[in-house]
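Final report, closing paragraph on structural work. Over the funding period we assembled a curated collection of sequence-structure pairs, and we close with a single example.
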Amino acid sequence: MSKTWLLAAALLLVGCGKEVGRVPFSGEGSGSATTVLNAGSVAFWTDVDIAYDGSATLDYQIALVQGGTRVASAVCNPLGPMSIQVLWNEMHRGSASWRSGRGKMDCSANLSKGGPTTVEATLAFGDRPLSATIKRADLVVKQ
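Its predicted structure, as stored:
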């Protein structure tokens, strides 16, 4: 691997923001994490290892809460297209699908002020596949 390519890859990852919070999931459900966020854009990534059979839609319903008040929200799709993928593997064979890795989802939120923020998230299937195994589906917050 050339040094130029490694430098370009390192610069790309730095431009993706720093992980400032994570809500872990090993199946459908709800969770939260509290972190300090700055005013401005908040990016959402997923760190997944999931296999499913059949058609599926899966969403994170996300609320950012400051001082007990919801100040921003987003809906993010960990099965959708990823604008950036890191250590990404994906396979589709017939109706069976599998994906593993970290990816930047096409969703974000904007905060008008910074400070301690609780990230509340629910992970749930909309269209439920015939079967699914979620080993990991962490919501990653970057800024």
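The chain has a mean pLDDT of 91. The first strand starts at residue 19 and ends at 23. We thank the funder for supporting this effort.
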